[in-house]
Amino acid sequence: MHLFDHIRIPALVDLHVHFREPGFSYKESILSGSDAAMRAGYSDVYTMPNVNPAPDSLEHLSIQSAIIARDSQIGVHPYASITLGQKGEGELVNIEELSPYVAGFSDDGRGIQDEGLMRAAMERIAAAGSMIVEHCEVNELLRGGYIHDGLYARQHGHRGICSESEWKEVERNIRLSEETGCRLHICHISTKESVQLVREAKARGARVTAETAPHYLLLNEGMLQEDGCWKMNPPIRSVADQMALLAGIQDGTIDVIATDHAPHSAEEKSKGLAQSAFGIVGIETAFPLLYTYLVKTGMLTMERLIKLMSTRAREIMGLPMDESWATFDLNAHYTIEPERFVSKGHSTPFAGWEVYGRCIKNEYRGKTVFEG
């Protein structure tokens, strides 16, 4: 238990968000997404390239960068796509030209299937001194699935996504990273096998970091409901996977907790598990959920949570430790109500959960940007 009411910590950092602009601002905009992040205690977020146009050239990146310069409330750092059009195949972007202007390269939402293409990308990204931030998924193993291939899927007649579709590509990408010397950051790991592969890679000294998200730590397939707010990719998996992920954040195998904040319109999320879009929002609930259900229960120390949500991400991305601060009222007690979110996206499986902890001040690069 904490003997203090308020805590001032290095502001939170999220290595994995979808702010949807340009191209899909009805789901989220740079303004609404960065405002939500600012009020939640974040100083820096890293945006995935599944926007339109994808940031696959300096010309296309400049469109996104101009919106960020105009509307961002905090540090919003884009990743460039790895392939032209962010297709996960075809032609690589001009890595050398883009690398000075982006945080790294990702085709998030699409695993690169072709090993030769991935090797070539890693060789060039390593030479450019950048990093690859990879969504690991073997397409041929998906088989039309949309939730975890487990007990709930079988009992309710749903198509499942097997764990192997994730960990097989984690395994391949770690091997390619070791062979090319490219820094590899593995997105949103959800399986026990992925945790063990990262653990073994780190023991060998591989240049590999990994993230998971709050929903994989706090939920499992036994909690699933017939609602689109339970649909995300990768899916919520078994209790055994959840336990392995919790062990991974405790022992340092998993470096950071990102949100994979992925807003959609209410209509896109209203079509049940089978037909709804993949993705939930998370940036406004991450800290209170993890503080309430992991720190207050004694599963994590506050120091470890700060590392997972702030300081380790700062190390990975080379952000300063001491210029942005967030103050949280740890006694603030409330119920998660999606209709009160600042984000345009309201789809979350955590609606109705009782939490403690609310950001009451955000000092971004020495300037107070939020006080509430």
Compact summary:
The protein has 372 residues and is an alpha/beta fold.
Low-confidence stretches: none
Instruction: Give the total of beta strands.
Output: 13
Q: State mean pLDDT (0 to 100 scale).
A: 97
Given the structure, what is the number of helices? 12
Main sheet: strand order: 1-11-12-13
What can you tell me about this protein's structure?
The structure is a single chain. This protein has 372 residues and is an alpha/beta fold. Strand 12 and strand 13 form a beta hairpin. The chain is built from 12 helices and 13 strands. Helix content is 33%, strand content 18%. The model has no long low-confidence stretch (mean pLDDT 97). The chain has helices at 30-39, 58-71, 95-98, 115-127, 151-156, 164-180, 192-203, 214-218, 239-251, 272-275, 286-295, 302-317; strands at residues 6-10, 12-17, 42-47, 75-78, 131-134, 147-148, 160-161, 183-186, 208-212, 256-257, 325-335, 354-364, 367-371. Helix 4 packs across helix 6 and helix 6 (164-180) packs parallel to helix 7. The chain has a 4-stranded antiparallel β-sheet. It has a 4-stranded parallel β-sheet with strand order 5-8-9-10.
List keywords for this structure.
13 strands, four-stranded antiparallel sheet, 372 residues, alpha/beta
